[in-house]
Amino acid sequence: MEAQAPAASSRRWVALFFIGLAQLMLILDATVVNIALPSIQRDLGISDADRQWVITAYSLAFGSLLLLGGRIADSVGRKRTFLIALVGFTAASALGGAAQNAEMLLAARALQGAFGALLQPSALSLLSVTFTEQKDRAKAFGIWGGITAAGGAIGLLAGGALTEYLDWRWCLYVNIPIAVVAAIGGYAILTDSRREDKARFDIPGVVLVTAGLVSIVYATSRAEADGWGSAKVTGLLAAGAVLLAAFFFVESRVRQPLLPLRVITDRTRGGAYFAVALSVIGMFGAFLFMTYYLQVVKGYSPVKTGVGFLPMAVAVLVSAAGLTSRLMPKLPPRTLIVPGMLVCAAGMLWMQTLDPTTSYASGVLVAQLLLGLGSGLIMPPAMNYATHGVAMNDMGVASATVNTSQQVGGSLGTALLNTIATSATADYIASHGRTPAIAKQAVVEGFSTAGAWAAGIIIVGALIVAAVMNTPRPQPATAEDAKLIPEPNPLPAHP
């Protein structure tokens, strides 16, 4: 048995490579299409009113189906779900790349989102059950957190390069080789696991949570065009809130709930979900504002803009894989997450120093480094403790919950910050007149105002996490001994 231990350990790290590939593909897909959107719109003749659906079709399907995807992974088998989702995501990407009209592209994007909602919770739950020893778990989640936080910046670089040098269709085709490699490797290396009892799907819960999340995500996508005070947006938000309240009521009554309330009422996991939801406001806001600042205000090309985001990706990797993975086994999670959120807030506040003449090195670069370092402190422990103390039967749905908080938080935050920025820009132009120079300054004023709001939201979130997440310093024992995965007869965590 001892002679096999190194081989087993080696297989775990190989498994992480293929699981990480799948996660990278999903994160890339969330941003790689953004830079290509103007080209897609021209090529397929999509109207200005409908262009948002290229992004929204994906986010609606993805965000609303994550909890169902997590429960399917728990019930059907995490490896099986992972492989099926990869095949489906590949097919949807090929369909989107070959799209001849807007309808075909939007259908493909919705399919990508649906299969992504299967893929992401199955990938994270596979990671959780594969790495159970505390030190290795910290390293694995450090790498995972780095992929999660840096993937967006890499997606902007890839999207710019593919659009400028090849064609926008390659922003979708690029998923195919990644998914094929992840599927082949996952089939050979990963070990399947699932619920030990016979699961029954909570159909009322599925309907209520899906409808509720669709209402909220769609409302935020319409907020920029219709306004937060419009009847459509407020009605959808109210409907979403009512549906989600009904969902939680149902979950407290059914025998096998889609989302057992014990998963989210734990202070450690609740703090992790909250930290992820609020920190992505800064990350998504930064991607949006800096992309427009570099291209519209500074006149950067798509490729140059993508290259300009590389320091953020490097900062995330250094912070997550280099620093946080070493500190996680030694420190309580909030001593990493709270400072990380404050550093992210500082990065958003640094945007107050920007104006149309600010150099890249003294403006955007500093903000990116702060955001990257902060995110690298937040994501690994938050993703790790999102499944803290979860029974094996609930691993998939716990993983789905943190991904849902990320998706919904990013959607709400982006819509809110974009509305704030647009309003501030319009007010500046109204009071200063309209010239090319004033227009650029107005855009920067909008970004600065929204950045200040984002910083305030993240700071408040840091205070809440500090009060809620009271998990002590990890003990020098394995995750099984610490009962991070308390299952009476757990399935093998790795080959």
Description:
- The longest helix has 40 residues, at 5-44.
- This protein folds into two domains: 7-201 and 258-468, Up-down Bundle (Growth Hormone, Chain: A), CATH 1.20.1250.20; 202-257.
- The chain is globular.
- 77% of the residues lie in helices and 0% in strands.
- With 495 residues, the protein is mainly α.
- It comes from Actinomadura barringtoniae.
- The chain crosses the membrane at residues 12-33, 53-70, 82-100, 106-129, 141-160, 172-190, 202-221, 233-250, 271-294, 306-324, 336-354, 360-379, 450-469.
- It is found in: Cell membrane.
- Residues 15-473 form the Major facilitator superfamily (MFS) profile domain.
Which fold name is given in CATH as the topology of the largest domain? Answer: Growth Hormone, Chain: A
What's the Cα radius of gyration?
A: 22 Å
> Can you give the helix content as a percent range?
over 70%
* Beta-strand segment tally: 0
Q: Estimate the mean pLDDT confidence.
A: 80
Shape: globular
Q: For the report, how would you describe the main beta sheet?
A: none
Structural class of the helix and strand makeup?
A: mainly alpha
Distance between the termini: 13 Å
The proportion of strand residues reads under 5%
**Gross CATH architecture of the largest domain:** Up-down Bundle
Whole-number tally of structural domains: 2
Number of discrete helical segments: 17
What top-tier CATH class of the largest domain fits best?
A: Mainly Alpha
SSE arrangement, N to C: HHHHHHHHHHHHHHHHH
